[in-house]
């Protein structure tokens, strides 16, 4: 599943091609995504110029003068910038034509979305209740400390709560807790201010590092055969059940929390 670093890498990959580009056509081959693609999308976009490619949480935002196109990659979506005569594959559901090129949306599982919104985008129902960006100025240790005060639930669930902070995701929540030396099962309200500061800092570092690693995949956004956007990294705990901790050698433990997998080192992340 594309996580925030993959979505940000996608944004950086397509933005130079899209900014100030004019839409010359829209081809919708499959409108049934998580929500239906608006039937009047072609009429909305034809002849309009993309002003900016932004991101909020895991939503890519193509900003026009008269509205915003929201794109969510869902579980398996990707975007590529290709020559206009590139034949579509089975799962290539939508193209934005840009003269001699196109932006192609592929989504085998169709859990993603392409939606049109007029007016301030921060008021869109999918965005209006979201917490701060983890890499933005609105997020700090104090964010976690304040949110944790009222919660006896596990800190891992706090990190995964989009009302507290967006886009940390399961992989990066596990990795950040390892680097911060905090067990995922710790009650959120048991964390000290100093621990919250350390955790907020590791979240930033882990995400920054993943985005930097994704930079090397940018060429894939213009490669019709490439596997765009998703990148495998070497993790400290994620998906390493029973493998030795890279720091102390103890077997990594696996538990379920909120229907998601948690991985941690019992020695490096004491309860
Ligand atoms: Zn360890």
Q: In whole angstroms, how far apart are the ends?
A: 29 Å
Bound molecules: zinc ion
Radius of gyration equals 20 Å
The main β sheet shows up as: 4 strands, antiparallel
Question: Using DSSP, what is the number of strands?
Answer: 10
Number of helical segments with 4 or more residues: 6
Low-confidence stretches: none
Classify the beta-strand content into a percent band. Answer: 15-25%
Q: Into which percent range does the helicity of residues fall? A: 25-40%
Which structural class matches the secondary elements?
A: alpha+beta
**SSE string, helices as H and strands as E:** HEHEEEEEEEHHHHEE
Across the major sheet, the strand order is 1-6-7-5
- Average per-residue pLDDT, rounded, comes to 92
In one word, what is the shape?
A: elongated
């Amino acid at each position: 599943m594309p996580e925030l670093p993959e979505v940000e890498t996608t944004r950086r990959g397509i933005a130079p091609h899209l900014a100030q580009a004019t839409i010359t056509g829209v081809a919708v081959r499959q409108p049934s995504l998580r929500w239906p693609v608006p039937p009047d999308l072609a009429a909305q976009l034809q002849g309009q110029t993309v002003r900016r490619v932004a991101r909020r949480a895991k939503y890519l935002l193509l900003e026009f003068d008269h509205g915003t196109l929201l794109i969510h990659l869902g579980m398996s979506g990707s975007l590529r910038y290709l020559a206009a005569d590139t034949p579509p594959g089975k799962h290539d559901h939508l193209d934005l034509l840009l003269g001699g090129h196109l932006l192609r949306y592929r989504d085998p599982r169709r859990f993603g979305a392409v939606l049109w919104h007029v007016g301030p985008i921060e008021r869109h129902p999918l965005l209006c209740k979201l917490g701060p960006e983890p890499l933005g100025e609105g997020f700090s240790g104090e964010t976690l400390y304040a949110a944790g005060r009222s919660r006896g639930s596990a800190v891992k669930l706090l990190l995964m709560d989009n009302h507290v902070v967006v886009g940390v995701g399961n992989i990066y929540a596990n990795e950040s807790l390892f680097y911060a030396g905090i067990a995922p099962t710790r009650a959120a309200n048991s964390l000290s201010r100093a621990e919250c500061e350390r955790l907020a800092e590791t979240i930033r570092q882990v995400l920054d590092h993943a985005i930097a690693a994704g930079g090397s995949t940018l060429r894939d956004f213009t490669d019709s055969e490439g596997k765009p956007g998703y990148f495998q990294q070497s993790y400290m705990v994620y998906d390493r059940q029973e493998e030795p901790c890279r720091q102390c050698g103890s077997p990594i433990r696996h538990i379920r929390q909120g229907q998601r997998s948690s991985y941690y080192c019992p020695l490096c992340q004491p309860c």
